[in-house]
TrEMBL record:
Binds 2 [4Fe-4S] clusters per monomer. [4Fe-4S] cluster 1 binds at residues 199, 202, 205, 259. [4Fe-4S] cluster 2 binds at residues 209, 225, 252, 255. Pfam families: Fer4_16, QueG_DUF1730. InterPro entries: 4Fe4S_Fe-S-bd (IPR017896), 4Fe4S_Fe_S_CS (IPR017900), QueG (IPR004453), QueG_DUF1730 (IPR013542). It is found in: Cytoplasm. It catalyses: epoxyqueuosine(34) in tRNA + AH2 = queuosine(34) in tRNA + A + H2O. It comes from Paludibacterium paludis. Catalyzes the conversion of epoxyqueuosine (oQ) to queuosine (Q), which is a hypermodified base found in the wobble positions of tRNA(Asp), tRNA(Asn), tRNA(His) and tRNA(Tyr). One of its GO terms (biological process) is tRNA queuosine(34) biosynthetic process. The keyword Transcription regulation does not apply. Pathway: tRNA modification; tRNA-queuosine biosynthesis. This is Epoxyqueuosine reductase.
């Protein structure tokens, strides 16, 4: 830092100015809240973990209550800025029509472009630098789905939206199709008030969940959630859930696609979230043909890269098992009966059985 005199900020004016800067950096909105959450958040997390709803996400249990105690995560935090950035790629093929096309792979719309973690973190850091250039050095840390942070709870408390029955943040003016990010600061910024929820008696998200993962209003059992099964789960996908997954090979958007508030969703304007490599309209057989180097090349810089080639093939095998029976589908599956991965072979054998094909006895070994 160069020598410069800084006066004590006018914090209400600074908060207003930060929100202006945030919009200039591509964020749709920004709000301020305190680094404490109500006891209800603690009880909800404790019960959810005790029931095993986190599945294999053992880090959730390791972090314990730190997730709902933001002041302990970053000591000295006085205010938390919560921000949202829309991601829906308006040029992508219509999501609902794609779900109805069993020959093609459905990839959650947030993952069609560049990895959002990098994009959001960089923008949050730029916002912090903008603040520092105005008031001088200050304590801060930036997060976006990258640490034990109760993002939705903090965002709802800040008035950025309300927590929907599907557990995602909802807004009247933009639905839920956006990423969240946080800037923890040691600045005593004035808090914004929470907003009232507007889900009413609607249960559309619960009703359309393909696997019944939304087991109660505001409660998701990850062990049944397609996003968990195709992204977080390391191992075999339970056989009883495979037919319910359909052609969803990475994540699931159903609870958002059928939410009435997403009629007002704002398309993303960030070029990094634009569709890459035709992932919005790719055939299952084509994606299943990728070898490891091709997967690494196509998915470089994508959120999908982190699941790895093996789980990618596992997910696609399930999609192919649910696809209409064609010679191309049978040929694609048969070509991977000798895949080096037992996990892939297991799912290929299951998929072939769905098409009435009985592979040789040792193929799943």
């Amino acid at each position: 830092m160069t020598d410069k005199s800084y006066q004590t900020p006018d914090y209400p004016e600074l908060a207003r100015q930060i929100k202006v800067w945030a919009r200039e950096l591509g964020f749709q909105d920004a709000r301020v809240t305190r680094p404490e959450l109500p006891e209800e958040a603690t009880r909800h997390l404790q019960n959810w973990l005790a029931e095993g709803c986190h599945g294999q996400m053992h880090y959730m249990q390791r972090h314990g209550l730190l997730r709902v105690r933001p002041a302990e995560l970053v000591p000295g935090t006085l205010s938390v800025l919560t921000l949202r950035m829309p991601y829906w790629p308006q040029e992508a093929r219509d999501a609902k029509s794609l779900l109805g096309d069993g020959a093609r792979a459905y990839i959650s719309r947030y993952a069609l472009g560049r990895d959002y973690h990098k994009v959001i973190r960089q923008r949050l850091q730029k916002l912090a630098e903008r603040i520092a250039s105005h008031i001088g050095p200050f304590g801060h840390r930036v997060f976006t789905d990258s640490a034990p942070v109760a993002e939705v709870a903090l965002a709802a408390q800040s008035g950025l939206g309300w927590r929907g029955k599907h557990t995602l943040l909802l807004t009247r003016e933009a639905g839920s199709l956006f990423f969240l990010g946080e800037l923890f600061t040691d600045l005593p910024l004035p808090e914004d008030p929470a907003v009232e929820g507007h889900c009413g008696s609607c249960t559309r998200c619960l009703d359309v969940c393909p696997t019944g993962a939304i087991v109660a209003e505001g409660k998701v059992d990850a062990r049944r959630c397609i996003s968990y099964l195709t992204i977080e789960l390391d191992g075999s996908i339970p056989e009883d859930l495979r037919p319910l997954i359909g052609n969803r090979v990475y994540g699931c958007d159903d609870c958002q696609l059928f939410c009435p508030w997403n009629r007002f969703a704002v398309p993303g304007t960030e070029s990094d979230f634009s569709v890459r490599h035709g992932l919005d309209d790719i055939e299952l057989t084509e994606a299943f043909s990728w070898d490891a180097p091709t997967f690494a090349e196509r998915m470089a810089g994508s959120a999908i890269y982190r699941i790895g080639h093996e789980r990618w093939l596992r997910n696609l095998a399930v999609g192919l098992g649910n696809a209409p029976t064609t010679e191309a589908v049978i040929a694609a599956l048969t070509a991977r009966l000798d895949d080096p991965s037992p996990l892939v072979r297991e799912h290929v054998v299951w998929a072939l059985s769905r098409h009435g094909v009985a592979p040789r006895r040792d193929s799943a070994g």
